[in-house]
Amino acid sequence: MTAIASRALAALFALLAILVAQAVPLAAQESAADRRFAEQLGFPFQSGLVGAENAPVFAWVIDEGGVRNIWVARAGEPARRITGYTEDDGIQISGLTLDANGTKLVFVRGGDADEPDASLPNPGLALTAPRQTLNVIDVAGAALPSLIGEGHGAVFAPDGSTLAYTSKGAIYLWSPDGKPRKLAQLDGRVAELVWSPDGRKLAFQENRQGQSLVGVIDIAVGRLGYLGTAFAYAEDPAFSPDGSEVAFIQYREPPAALEDSRASFWSVVAADVSSGAIRTVWQAPEGEGGQFYGTRGRNLFWLDGGQILFPWERTGWLHVYAVDAKDGGAARDLTPSANEVENFRPAPDGTWIAFTANPGDLDSRRMLRVDIASGKTDSLTGPEVFAYYPVFGGDRLAATVTDAQTPAHMVLLDAMQLLGPKHGTPGYQTPENVTFTAADGLQVHGQLFRGTGAGKRPALVYVHGGPRRQLLAGYSPMYYYSLAYAVNQELAARGFTVLSVNYRSGTNYGRAFREAPEKARAGASEYRDVLAAGKWLAARSDVDEERIGIWGGSWGGYLTALALARDSDLFKAGVDLHGVHQMVRPVAETFSPTERLRQQQLQWNSSPMGSIGTWRSPVLLIHGDDDYNVPYGQSLLLARELTARGVPFEELAFPNERHDFFRFANWLTSYRATIDFFERKLGDGR
C-alpha cells in the first residue's frame, strides 16, 4: 500500500470515528427522549370508583402503562392494591361492585366494558381470546380472586347473600356457597339490574331493537312481567322505598324530519309491581326540554322522603329537578345556579345531592352539594381542580379529581384527603383557556398549549371525538383524552403550539350549542369551528402560518380528514385516528323521496370523501381492525382513495384492537408515530 493510500485510509478511519462519536450521544439523547415520553404516557390512570352502601369503603382501578389492578381504601386508612396483575395484556378490569358492608368486591376481567355482550376482544394476540370472567375477592385481600362465571352488570342483594348478574340476555343468581343458576333468558340485552328493598324481586332494563323495556322478576314465584310497555324507550328503573312500585323514564325520539320539534317526548312514570298498573308521575311540557337528554350516569332516583329526582333541560341547560312521587305536580329545579350538571348522586340519607357542574365558568368542573328541602348550595371543590363522578361510601363522599399537572386520582371530598396514590407531572404547563369566533359568529372555547422555542412556531389544532365531549385545561377523567392531553403537552415541549377545540355539538355549553343546526351529516357545521381555530392560529404572531397541522380521533378523526380534504392550503399535515370518512347512511322513510335524495347528497357533501379531490396534505392513518365504534373499513376506503390520487399518507393498523385501544403498547406506538410524523412534516428540522 502506498504512503498516500495509507494516509487516505487513516483519514477515512478518523472521519468515521468522529461521525460515530457524534452519532452515539445523539442516539442516546433520542433514546432518553423516547424513554421519558413512554414514562409520561404510562402515568397511573385511576377510574371506576365505587363505594359500599353502609361503610366508608371505596374501590377503583389503576391502569399503569396497560397493567390494570384494583385498589381499595377505607376512609382514614391507607389504600391497598388487592390484585396482582403484571402484564400489558389488553385485558380490561371493569364493573366493580362492593357488597353493602364493603367486605367483598365483584369485578369483571376481560371482554369490552362498552360492548359487554359483543365478541371477545383479543388485542394481546393470545392464541385463544381471553374470556370475560366475573370474579369475587375479599376486600381484606387475604386470598386470590375466585371465579363466579362469565358475565357482567353484577349487583348484590340488599343483605349481601345473593348476587345478580347478566350475560348475553340471561340473568343469573349466585351466592357464595353455591354455583350460579340461570334465573331468566331474555330476547334482548340486559343493561341494568336493580334489587327491590326486600331482596325478593329484581327489576331490569332490557334493550331491544328500536326500544327498551323495564321488567320485574318475582324470584320466589318465578314470574316475569314487563311494566308500561309502549312504543318508546324505558330506562333507569328505581323501586319505591316500600318496593310496591317501580319508577322509570319513558321517552320517544323525535322523527328525523322533525328533529327540532318542541313537542313533549318524555315522562316519568311509575308502575305497580303487583298489578302492572301505570301512572304518569310527571310529563315534560311542550317547549324547551321536551326531548329527553340525560347525564353520563344514573338519571332517576326515588328517595325515602318521597321525592323523585331526574335531569331536565327546561332552561336550555341540564339541571336536576325534584317532583313529588305520589302527587306529581310541578318539578322543582334543585340546581338553578349551575350552568350544566354533568353527574349527580343523592346522599344516603336523601336530604341532599352531590353534583358536578360548571357554575360561573363554563370551562370548569366543580363538585357542589345542594340541600333538597331548602335549596342551599355549597361548593365542595374550588377552581384549582376539576372534580367528577360523585360516589358515596356510607355517608362519606369521594370523587375523581384532576388538574393541569395531575391525572385522575381519588379524593375524599368531605375531608379533602387522598384516598390512594397521586401521580404528578410537574413539568407540564397549565394550558390557557381561550375563545375565538367562527365565521357565522358563534363563540368557540379551547385550550392553548404554547410551544417552546423562539421565533414563529409550528402549530396544531386538536379535535376531540364524541362529539358530545368537553375538554378542559387539565387531564380528563377519561383515559382516551388523558393520553391525548399528555401528547399535546409533549408536542408543546417539542416546540408545537397546540389549540384544543371544543367545537359545536359538544357538551356543557348548553343545549343550543350541543344541538347546533346543520351539524354532522346535515352540513358539518362543527367544521366551521375547526377552520376558525386554524385561522386563529395562523393569525398569531408566534405561529408560522405555513406550518399548521391538525389531529384527532374518532369524530376528531372525521374532522381532521375533513380539514385536510377541504383546506390543505391551511392544514399542511394531519394525523387521523379511526376517523369516519364516508358519512352517507340510509335516510329515514319519514322524508319524501325527493327530500331523501337531497339528504343523501348533503351527507356526501359533509363527508371527507365529498371533498377528496382537493386533498393534498400528507396524513398518518391509525386504526384497529376490531373497532366496534368506527368500522375499520372507513380507513381502508380512505387509503384506497388517497393512493389513487397520489396523496401521500402513512399508516398504522393494529390487528384485533378496539376503538379505545386496550393495549398501552399500541397507544405508545401510535403516539410516537404521531410526534415523529409532525416533526418530519412541520418541525424545525424538516
TrEMBL record:
Domain of life: Bacteria
Signal peptide: 1-23
Official protein name in the record: Acyl-peptide hydrolase
Keywords carried by this UniProt record: Acetylation, Hydrolase, Protease, Serine protease, Signal
Coiled coil (residue ranges): none
Record-annotated Peptidase S9 prolyl oligopeptidase catalytic domain positions: 489-684
GO MF: serine-type endopeptidase activity
Function description: This enzyme catalyzes the hydrolysis of the N-terminal peptide bond of an N-acetylated peptide to generate an N-acetylated amino acid and a peptide with a free N-terminus. It preferentially cleaves off Ac-Ala, Ac-Met and Ac-Ser. Also, involved in the degradation of oxidized and glycated proteins.
Gene3D superfamilies noted in UniProt: alpha/beta hydrolase, TolB, C-terminal domain
Alphabetical list of InterPro entries matching this protein: 6-blade_b-propeller_TolB-like, AB_hydrolase_fold, Pept_S9_AS, Peptidase_S9_cat, WD40
GO BP field: proteolysis
One Pfam family recorded for the sequence: PD40
